[in-house]
Amino acid sequence: MKIWQTKSLITWLLAPFSLLFWLISHVRKRLYSWNILQSYHSPVPVLVVGNISVGGNGKTPVVIWLVQQLQARGVNVGVISRGYGGKVKNFPQLVTHQSSAEMVGDEPVLIVQRTNVPLAISPNRQQSIELLLNQFELDIIITDDGLQHYALRRDMEWVVVDGVRRFGNNFVLPAGGLRELPHRLKSVDAIICNGGQAKPNEHLMTLEPSDAINLLTNEHKPLNEFKQPCVAIAGIGHPPRFFTMLEKLGIELAKTHTFADHQTFDKAQLLELADNQTPLFMTEKDAVKCKAFAQENWWYVPVSATFSENSTACLLAPILQKLGK
């Protein structure tokens, strides 16, 4: 939200509520650290990929990258997710290639499609871990989000930061977009900067786009072959990042349409946005919700996280050492 990027009259009016939010969060965290509230300790190591701000920082590409890197090194990885945005009520539940994004959430389906990793969803992380360990021999569990879910103990914490927006006005909810204050970063194992300018203690991540992929035919087409004006939609945490990426790659955008993160789409809604001669671009996260009613002019653009060789080594070394790999 734009009001979270600057300080205004609204910020100060909401500041008392932010103080209350911080106080409740701080006390709750202390209760877990003092073992007054019980937390679950997984029999295998747990690594949390989360953030201290609300949505749109790039956690999912980091999770996909990390899963692929560990799989390539012979590590048996499992992933858990809350399944945010899904309609399913029975938990825990395994996510497969046949799972509906509408039911289990778009991000879990996307992660499974990209990595084939065993993945379970539930608001109760313990349930998800127990389900995975009952069915798979796993060396490590990666949790997609859940940095503030202190009911689950963790062995390592990674935080993803938007390198452009950073921490906005530095207020916690609702006056700002933070779940925890920036000093929380002093206690995590790695800080990943998504775009922008990384600070000395951060690992810079860039999102590299691939060819556009047709939702209906699975045709791959280089982006520089799209010569006419196009339409783009995005139902992600920070849609402008997607639109800016397309424009930097030479795509002329006649129109853009922003939707809520995790929004469910329907065919009629998208047909109104572009005629069948105009390419309609969307993110891969949006595409997993639209394939069932895809049209010939609908395309998605996958992006993959990339790190420098040095950052890759620094990020993976503590994990592999802990696992004895």
UniProtKB/TrEMBL annotation:
Residues noted as binding ATP in the record, renumbered to the chain: S53, V54, G55, G56, N57, G58, K59, T60
Reactions mediated catalytically: a lipid A disaccharide + ATP = a lipid IVA + ADP + H(+)
Ranges in a coiled coil: none
Enzyme class of the recorded protein, top EC level: transferase
InterPro entries xref list: LpxK, P-loop_NTPase
Keyword Ribosomal protein attributed: no
EC number(s) given by UniProt: 2.7.1.130
GO BP terms, alphabetized: lipid A biosynthetic process; lipopolysaccharide core region biosynthetic process
Origin: domain of life: Bacteria
Gene Ontology MF term list: ATP binding; lipid-A 4'-kinase activity
GO annotation, cellular component aspect: plasma membrane
Keywords: ATP-binding, Kinase, Lipid A biosynthesis, Lipid biosynthesis, Lipid metabolism, Nucleotide-binding, Transferase
Protein's UniProt keywords contain Disulfide bond: no
Entry function: Transfers the gamma-phosphate of ATP to the 4'-position of a tetraacyldisaccharide 1-phosphate intermediate (termed DS-1-P) to form tetraacyldisaccharide 1,4'-bis-phosphate (lipid IVA).
Protein name: Tetraacyldisaccharide 4'-kinase
Species assigned in the record: Mannheimia pernigra
Gene this chain is encoded by: lpxK
